[in-house]
Amino acid sequence: MPQRYDAVIIGGGHNGLISAAYLARAGLKTVVLERRHVLGGAAVTEEIIPGFKFSVASYVVSLLRPEIIRELNLPKFGLDILPLDGTFTPVRPGEAPPGGDYLWRVNDHGRTIRELRRWSKNDAEAYEEYGQLMVDMARFIKPILGIVPADLTENDPRPMMPLASLMKRFAELPERQQAVFVQLMTMSAKDFLDQWFETDPLKATMSASGIIGTYQGINSPGTAYVLLHHYMGEIDGAFRAWGIPKGGTGGVSYAIARAAQAQGAEIRTEAPVARIIVRNGKATGVALESGEEIEASVVLSSADAKVTFLDLLEDGVLDPEFETEIKRFKFRGSSGKVNLAVDRLPDFKALPGFGEHLRGAISFSPTTVEMEKAYDDAKYGHWSERPYMDMIIPTLVDPQMAPPGKHVISCFVQYAPYKLAPELGTWDDNNNREKFGDAVINRIAEFAPNIKDIIIGRQVLTPLDIERTMGLTEGNIFQGELTLEQLFFNRPVPGWARFKTPVQNLWLSGSSTHPGGGIMGANGRLAALEVLKAKGRKVA
User: Which helix (H) or strand (E) holds 217?
Assistant: First the structure.
């Protein structure tokens, strides 16, 4: 006899685990099915090289919703986010002063202003106003992270009430803030920043937040909103605070998993789902690749929209028009990851030796021209020869991630297109994967020449590898691009942005839904609350 549950959740990423915690807390008999041997999806820690533990894909936390931390009491279950202090941008290697220059912004506001004044007195003054305005914008838009998008095709006005409240608040904003909000919704990251600053390395580094996880350049319209999306990060209520989870991003996933298990949820690894069972238009459970069937009153999929609807449902289940809309949903993976095990620290020409500049993010974004050229490579199906990278050395704040005296380095890389130019073949052809890894190392070596001498081992992940390993279509780290036409009412498709799907009792809870990607958890929480509401269950 098949096992029966109130809810079965496909995927043990952080959103799936959060859904499980909320459903179990409300008394539903819940099981999570994860296809891999390890929990976390893209928020996972693994020992790829003996003795060295890596946050293999996602590597920092900035968006995890404070209400989830509070409601699930995640610190009790091991969540510990360590501060990541500042961003160091080496620039102009080989030029005066010896070794080039650098831009270094830290969490100490006074020190950052003094550093900016070294570059431009105008920028130092503008930074104060810009920072306050962006905090105001983030506070204005932040409530949208907790709103279930209304269906504009329905006549019921109740789902529109939260949006009406947001519009009322918009009308109450000063005209200046209203104008800035419109600019953020429509402009490119670079054009928006050009209005404020004149220092090119500052604009290049700040604009990087506008392109993360998108197949767009810093000059592409709409990237200013992505910049704002990343500005909404909170740790203990502090905007724009980034942190490294102790034990890697897998530490976040396992804290959530322990919280779910404490509420009674069952979690199974190495349990890949082959298909969602649908009878008479209703999801009734899942079939595993092993042949085992599990019955459930509701099925939640934290897999992306393409995997859920096109891979796990049998042909003919979906209305052809809906299926066409899903096929239009853009993924276009553009990011790669290179993880390094090293026996000593990189030494930057611009600021030699060990120092606190290595304890924060290291941004390889020296000029806006180089940032856009990196995108130019990707537009024509090539990985960037001189890519933008966000590099951190987590062992400087969490030494347990490597053997004593040694370190791990995490390099988020843009751009690495999922689909390569025809002359290159695929990522599996012509040693392309290793050539991409070499391009990353060569880029680091421009600023820290000793990097090639200190590497013990490396892991190179292309979008194809991310798709194969983490199950993210085309390797898109947000389960679908964060472009304006794919947000809020339209995520994943118009008319179906409220987590429920055209298949009765089947729900989406992953980052293909509102409000998008990142280690945020809002998707999993909102989906679970909508399920409980539909079942008439009281939210605990």
Answer: none
Report the DSSP beta bridge partners of residue 30: 7
DSSP string, 238-304: EET--EEETT-HHHHHHHHHHHHHHTT-EEESS--EEEEEEETTEEEEEEETTS-EEEEEEEEE-S-
Cβ(3)–Cβ(294) below 8 Å: yes
Q: 3-class DSSP state for residue 338?
A: strand
Task: Give the Cα separation of 10 and 5 in Å (integer).
Answer: 13
| Rounded Cα distance, 515 and 479, in Å | 11
CA dist 302 and 14 (Å) reads 9
Lowest mean pLDDT among 3-12, 224-233, 443-452: 224-233
| Three-state secondary structure string covering 459-523 | EEECHHHHHHHHCCHHHCCCCCCCCHHHCHHHCCCCCCCCCECCCECEEECCCCCCCCCCCCCHH
> Which pLDDT belongs to residue 235?
47
Cα dist from 444 to 89, 301, 338, 421, whole Å: 12, 39, 11, 25
Q: What is the C-alpha separation between 540 and 469, in angstroms, rounded?
A: 35
Task: Please classify residue 51 by burial: count the beta carbons closer than 10 Å to its beta carbon, then call 0-12 exposed, 13-18 middle and 19+ buried.
Answer: middle
Amino acid code (one letter) for 93: P
CA 87, distance to chain mean position in Å, is: 18
Residue 369 CB partners (closer than 8 Å, separation 6+)? none
Residue 456 CA to chain centroid, in angstroms? 28
Tokens representing 484 are 């304006």
Per the prediction, the chain carries an average pLDDT of: 92
Q: Answer whether 0.85 is exceeded by the pTM.
A: yes
* CB of 436 closer than 8 Å to CB of 383: yes
Query: Is the separation of the CB atoms in 297 and 277 below 8 Å?
Result: no
Helix segments in 316-462, DSSP class H: 320-328, 368-379, 432-447, 451-454
User: Could you tell me the two tokens for 23?
Assistant: 């459903």
Encode pLDDT of 299-346 as tens digits: 999 999 999 999 999 999 999 999 999 999 999 999 999 999 999 999
User: Could you report how far apart the first and last alpha carbons of the chain are, in Å?
Assistant: 32
Q: 19, 58, 512: which is closest to 259 by C-alpha?
A: 19
Instruction: Write out pLDDT tens, residues 437-456.
Output: 999 999 999 999 999 999 99
Prior bond of 75 cis (ω within 30°): no
How large a percentage of the chain has pLDDT more than 70? Answer: 94
Per residue in 266-282, pLDDT tens?
999 999 999 999 999 99
Q: Per mean pLDDT, which range of 121-135, 191-205, 406-420 is the poorest? A: 121-135
Q: Is 484 exposed, middle or buried (0-12, 13-18, 19+ CB in 10 A)?
A: middle
Token output for 255? 């804290």
